[in-house]
Known about the structure:
Layout: H1 2-19, E1 23-29, E2 45-48, H2 51-55, E3 59-65, E4 70-72, H3 76-87, H4 93-101, E5 109-110, E6 116-117, H5 119-129, E7 134-138, E8 148-152, E9 158-159
Parallel strand pairs: 4-7
Antiparallel strand pairs: 1-3, 2-8, 3-9, 5-6, 7-8
Amino acid sequence: MELxxxxxxxxxxxxxxxxxxxxxxxxxxxERFGLSVKxxxxxxxxxxxxxxxxxxxxxxxxxxxxPKVTLDLTDDTIREKSFREMSEGYIDYExxxxxxxxxxxxxxxxxNFGFGFTLIDMILDYAKENGYDxxxxxxxxxRTITPIIYIVLDESIVLDKK
Length: 162
């Protein structure tokens, strides 16, 4: 009886452990892009926790992601530290924060030397260089919609869509 209880407990622990840290996310697809999540030609895959936000980009599919190491830019302390490290010498921290909060991170900006950059490329490079597989951030899309998005850098953490 003890062996049976031990096996049952071990199996339950294994199942619970595998269910932890799994996040249900949405991704809007438009047929004209023909993107499959596992074979996207992008630097990263974008998902959201907000169904209505995903709907703005096409038919919504549900995915489950299991991040291992997340750069959480929704945490003010982590965001400040990360922005200071990634922008050192190129732009001021305050400028990076303003670009982020204004929702302009995907748009071309000019650094202190007159060269063009996008904050999203700086964030993606910083995350990859520091071993993160996922970025969690607020998408300041408009004044009324500010969903949490997940940017996945390692497609292996995207579980099959449901």
